[in-house]
UniProtKB/TrEMBL annotation:
Swiss-Prot/TrEMBL keywords: Oxidoreductase
Upper lineage: Bacteria, Pseudomonadati, Bacteroidota, Flavobacteriia, Flavobacteriales
Keyword Lyase recorded: no
Keyword hit for Protease: no
Species in which this protein is naturally found: Flavobacterium franklandianum
Name of the molecule in the record: NADP-dependent glyceraldehyde-3-phosphate dehydrogenase
SUPFAM superfamilies per the UniProt record, alphabetical: ALDH-like
Length: 489
């Protein structure tokens, strides 16, 4: 049982003596199903929110604080110290990833290792950025000494599906650029931050990184309402992002770095390699039970291959094994959100009442906090599943006759992150790519959608993102170019 009774503020792990919130795993540790109590976290409110805000604002001190003015080489030393200490927490963090969010052992290890690698790559890119941006230039008789500087206080809120890796893809670049950060871990995947608090405390100056606990409305709202947040860095849903922005009294001063929803489609053309398409669509729709913003959330299959695709895809889904995340054969695991199975069931009921069928034998079977992935066909625009980002184990399939049909749907969609295109004839694919890149930000040829490699731009159009993540872009998003000018006299 992990009793997290401290929080990180102003370089100190401060004791919390107030109310605690229990943290449960939806994985049962007994034969008879019941959620497992994993630990407790502080239930904080406005007082602590304003305390961490004060710590971060003082650390920034209008750009004059120790952290924003620290030399690049020294900031790098702090980050290196942090990552060295972080590496010693691997076993504990991986275990908590499995218990808190039900991520498989292999994927939990990958999440940890990818984060460590992300930090090292960020350090390298930060060095390069510093070399490239701190330079002299001259135009129209004006000499300029250009450099990059921090922007201010960052409020960082990450998602439950990558509570370490994706959160750190905001937090690490924000921090290394000299911005003090207030970090509130996600509701699920919160205890796994505990082993890192000591490393944060030991590695960075007072107030550069502050970790607070509690619910958004109690702690994030007062921080936003203060008007002292310069960057809102959030990966999650648009509703929370909009609500938080709206609380800021001066929106012109607020920068946004947001990773939001997506409804990435796969388009399976008549000449697609079906073995490959089926395999990629299985991973694309159902890895981590479909709880990825990059997951394939709707499949468009050309009518000439739909019968074969649907039959073989449905059979493959039924071969997937459900169980506990540490069992090597398992790829489907308990869902961390206890409301999720009922929501997925609602989507199934809605679609089946409007003419769709569950085409795989096991689709919709309930176990503990899990519902076996249901493959639904045919889907139409009257159904909730067509519009809502399901973020869970359910796969909608539509057929098309003319490629213009999925393209029109994508153009009308509120989202625009990625697409997967399966086909072999380059003469068909090449012109399609030109259309697709203006509808989304990444076109995956004969492969499922994904965020990595972390050096490539990760973003989206419309309601899918604001700003771009990737090591290269995030360092720029969390900083501003400044220069000293002098005239040739
Ligand atoms: O939730 C969205 C994640 O960014 C997905 O990342 O493609 O690496 O699984 P991934």
């Amino acid at each position: 049982l992990l009793n997290q009774d401290t929080y990180l503020v102003n370089g100190e792990l401060k004791k919390w003596t107030g109310e605690m919130t229990p943290v449960y795993s939806t994985i049962s540790s007994s034969e008879k199903y019941e959620p497992t109590l994993l630990g407790n976290i502080p239930f904080m409110g406005e007082t602590e929110a304003l305390e961490v805000l004060e710590a971060a604002s003082s650390a920034y001190n209008n750009g004059q604080g120790l952290w924003p003015t620290m030399k690049v080489a020294d900031r790098i030393k702090c980050m290196e110290k942090f990552v060295t200490q972080m590496k010693t927490t691997r076993t504990e963090v991986v275990k908590l990833l499995m218990w808190e969010i039900g991520k498989t052992l292999g994927d939990s290890e990958k999440e940890f290792d990818r984060t460590v690698e992300y930090i090292y790559d960020t350090i390298e890119h930060y060095k390069q950025l510093d070399r490239n941006s701190a330079h002299f230039t001259k135009s129209q008789g004006v000499n300029a000494m250009i450099r990059r500087g921090p922007l201010g206080v960052v409020l960082c809120l990450g998602p439950y599906n990558y509570p370490l890796n994706e959160t750190f893809s905001l937090l690490i670049p924000a921090l290394i650029m000299g911005n003090p950060v207030i970090f509130k871990p996600a509701k699920h995947g919160v205890l796994l931050i505990s082993p890192l608090l000591e490393a944060f405390k030991n590695s960075f100056p007072k107030g550069a990184i502050n970790v607070i606990y509690g619910r958004g409305r109690e702690v994030a709202s007062p921080i936003m309402k203060s008007g002292k947040v310069d960057i809102l860095a959030l990966i999650g849903n648009s509703k929370s992002a909009i609500a938080l922005q709206d609380q800021h009294p001066n929106k012109n001063r607020l920068r946004l770095v947001l990773g939001l929803e997506a409804k990435n489609p796969a388009i399976i053309l008549p000449d697609a390699d079906l073995d490959l398409a089926i395999q990629e669509c299985i991973t694309g729709t159902l890895s981590f039970n479909g709880q990825r913003c990059t997951a394939l959330k709707v499949l468009y299959v050309h009518e000439t291959v739909a019968e074969e695709f649907n039959m073989r895809f449905a059979a493959k889904v039924d071969e997937l094994v459900y169980g506990n995340p540490w069992d090597k054969s398992v790829s489907l695991t308990p869902l961390p959100e206890k409301e999720k199975p009922a929501y997925i069931q609602e989507l199934i009921d809605d679609a089946t009442s409007k003419g769709a069928k569950v085409i795989n034998a096991k689709g919709g079977e309930h176990f503990d906090n899990f519902i076996f992935p249901a493959v639904l066909f045919p889907i139409n625009k009257e159904m909730r599943l067509y519009h809502e980002e399901q973020f869970g184990p359910i796969v909608p399939i539509l057929t098309f006759k003319d490629i213009q049909e999925p393209l029109n749907d994508m153009a009308e969609s509120n989202y625009g992150q990625q697409v997967s295109l399966f086909g072999q004839d380059i003469k068909t694919i090449a012109p399609l790519i030109d259309t697709l890149v203006n509808l989304v930000c990444r076109v995956n040829l004969n492969s499922s959608c994904q965020r990595g490699p972390d050096l490539y731009p990760f973003t989206g159009r419309k309601d899918s993102a604001v700003g771009t993540l990737s090591i290269f872009d995030a360092l720029r998003s969390f900083s501003i170019r400044t220069f000293v000018a002098s005239k040739d006299n």
